[in-house]
């Protein structure tokens, strides 16, 4: 136990008085002598010198993140952009139980990547903490494929939701790394550790209208990040995997021919978001042409469902309706809303039929042409946004406080409508979920996840009155379950 004096921050000083040796109390601050000042300064200088040397020799470490999801470390990033996310990586590395490239790290990655069935795929899923990425990872794992995920868990929307999805995957033995697709060295280490058969590249900066606020994050994720993934798949992986990646219905931009077919013009994007996705399709062409990389782009049409993205209209409207807050509807807007389970089946079908890459990382040459494909994954039945709101109102048992305005000039397009005949022909893609049924699944999850005391209306076909919502723990309802 410290003495009372020490505990109070005082020191006892000997002094002579009248021949007697006495003790007196002196504040400890007064004892900070010139020599301890010097010592302090020397320590600070030495530390700065060490940091400088470290940064000089290992600059790439400053932009790398590599903790394993399973170590339980949480490092959500303040700020809205993916490009900001990597700055926390040094923290992630020091807190990780199994560090990047270490034997334990490799062992964990290989375990997660190992298929649980003969002929199973081994898939690297980027954006696995995201909405579509998490559902696809669960579905692949459920059918016996090996999956390794990565995600930078940025705070474009609530990172807690992404951590929740990560936990769902961890519960099923799927590792999701805290990592950024722009970290070339990390991707290299991943491909060194595992001969992935496929990459499902879903990490991106999503959201059409946010591109006006944060244009550079779209370039960083959707252009630079895509190049980073293609570079690693083409030059660092041996053998090269096939890549399936998320393009967007927004590439149709100002196209007015409907339904949208892959053969239609896509050279008039209405938003920077759409432009980066269109750029991605051009970049895919180049990597396929030069390196023989098998590449499939999937144009998603307004995907919705449980564990969805809170920035999307159906989700934010549901929150506003519950909170009694106003919502703004763009007059006459229509969307080909596509339910997550249908999209997951499309993604899995695209992976299964991707065809091999023909290039070699070692020789840098390709042995012949490799598949280069692009598909619409939509629902084929556009619905007015006002109808989507009416379904939500009915399910939630509450009227929305609606404000209807003309569509602003914010990158939005008035309608989307998918022709999916190519996907149907090549891998049997057939969307089966109506907006009514899909939103019901969403609201079921929404009420459970946010623990809302809401009675959900039964489907109109039953003609029954609203029943109490179940209170059991929220779970994914995708093909994974
Ligand atoms: O299909 C796609 O390619 C895109 O789908 C969605 O984009 P969007 O269709 O604009 O989805 P929401 O932001 O959820 O908007 C849905 C509809 O609600 C309308 N809306 C949106 C916001 C609002 O305040 N009011 C409103 O009426 C929009 O005009 C749109 O018609 C996603 O956010 C994109 O990431 C994705 O790439």
From TrEMBL:
<feature type="region of interest" description="Disordered">
    <location>
        <begin position="460"/>
        <end position="481"/>
    </location>
</feature>
<dbReference type="InterPro" id="IPR036291">
    <property type="entry name" value="NAD(P)-bd_dom_sf"/>
</dbReference>
<keyword id="KW-0812">Transmembrane</keyword>
<keyword id="KW-0413">Isomerase</keyword>
<keyword id="KW-1133">Transmembrane helix</keyword>
<dbReference type="GO" id="GO:0032580">
    <property type="term" value="C:Golgi cisterna membrane"/>
</dbReference>
<dbReference type="InterPro" id="IPR001509">
    <property type="entry name" value="Epimerase_deHydtase"/>
</dbReference>
<keyword id="KW-0520">NAD</keyword>
<protein>
    <recommendedName>
        <fullName>UDP-glucuronate 4-epimerase</fullName>
        <ecNumber>5.1.3.6</ecNumber>
    </recommendedName>
</protein>
<dbReference type="GO" id="GO:0033481">
    <property type="term" value="P:galacturonate biosynthetic process"/>
</dbReference>
<dbReference type="Pfam" id="PF01370">
    <property type="entry name" value="Epimerase"/>
</dbReference>
<keyword id="KW-0472">Membrane</keyword>
<dbReference type="GO" id="GO:0016854">
    <property type="term" value="F:racemase and epimerase activity"/>
</dbReference>
<dbReference type="GO" id="GO:0050378">
    <property type="term" value="F:UDP-glucuronate 4-epimerase activity"/>
</dbReference>
<feature type="transmembrane region" description="Helical">
    <location>
        <begin position="38"/>
        <end position="58"/>
    </location>
</feature>
<feature type="domain" description="NAD-dependent epimerase/dehydratase">
    <location>
        <begin position="123"/>
        <end position="353"/>
    </location>
</feature>
<comment type="similarity">
    <text>Belongs to the NAD(P)-dependent epimerase/dehydratase family.</text>
</comment>
């Amino acid at each position: 136990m410290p003495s009372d004096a020490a505990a109070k921050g005082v020191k006892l000083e000997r002094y002579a008085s009248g021949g007697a040796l006495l003790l007196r109390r002196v504040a400890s601050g007064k004892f900070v002598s010139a020599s301890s000042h010097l010592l302090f300064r020397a320590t600070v200088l030495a530390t700065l010198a060490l940091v400088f040397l470290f940064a000089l020799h290992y600059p790439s470490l400053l932009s790398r993140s590599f903790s394993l999801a399973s170590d339980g470390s949480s490092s959500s990033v303040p700020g809205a952009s993916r490009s900001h996310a990597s700055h926390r990586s040094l923290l992630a590395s020091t807190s990780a139980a199994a560090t990047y490239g270490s034997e334990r790290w490799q062992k964990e990655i290989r375990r997660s990547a190992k298929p649980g069935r003969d002929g199973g795929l081994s898939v690297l899923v980027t954006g696995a903490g995201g909405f579509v990425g998490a559902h696809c990872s669960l579905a692949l794992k459920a059918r016996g494929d090996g999956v390794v995920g990565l995600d930078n868990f940025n705070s474009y929307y609530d990172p807690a939701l992404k951590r929740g999805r990560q936990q769902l995957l961890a519960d099923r033995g799927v590792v999701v790394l805290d990592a950024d697709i722009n970290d070339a060295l990390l991707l290299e280490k991943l491909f060194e550790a595992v001969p992935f058969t496929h990459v499902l590249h879903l990490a991106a900066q999503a959201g059409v209208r946010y591109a006006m606020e944060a244009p550079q994050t779209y370039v960083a994720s959707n252009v630079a990040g895509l190049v980073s993934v293609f570079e690693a798949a083409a030059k660092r992986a041996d053998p090269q995997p096939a890549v399936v990646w998320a393009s967007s219905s927004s590439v149709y931009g100002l196209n007015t021919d409907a339904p949208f077919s892959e053969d239609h013009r896509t050279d008039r994007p209405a938003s920077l978001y759409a432009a980066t996705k269109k750029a991605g399709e051009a970049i895919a062409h180049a990597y396929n042409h030069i390196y023989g990389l098998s590449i499939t782009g999937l144009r998603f049409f307004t995907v919705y469902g449980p564990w969805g993205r809170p920035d999307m209209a159906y989700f934010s409207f549901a929150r506003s309706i519950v909170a009694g807050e106003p919502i703004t509807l763009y007059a006459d807007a229509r969307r080909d809303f596509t339910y997550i389970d249908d999209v997951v089946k499309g993604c899995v079908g695209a992976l299964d039929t991707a065809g091999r890459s023909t290039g070699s990382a070692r020789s840098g040459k390709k042995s012949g042409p490799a598949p280069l494909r692009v598909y619409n994954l939509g629902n084929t039945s556009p619905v007015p946004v006002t109808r989507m709101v009416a379904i939500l109102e009915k399910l939630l048992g509450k009227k929305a406080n609606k404000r209807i305005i003309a569509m602003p000039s914010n990158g939005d397009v008035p309608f989307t409508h998918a022709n999916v005949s190519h996907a149907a022909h090549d891998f049997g893609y057939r969307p089966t979920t109506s907006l009514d049924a899909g939103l019901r699944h969403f609201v079921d999850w929404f009420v459970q996840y946010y623990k809302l005391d809401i009675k959900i209306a039964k489907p109109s076909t039953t003609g029954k009155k609203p029943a109490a919502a179940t209170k059991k723990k929220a779970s994914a309802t995708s093909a994974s379950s």
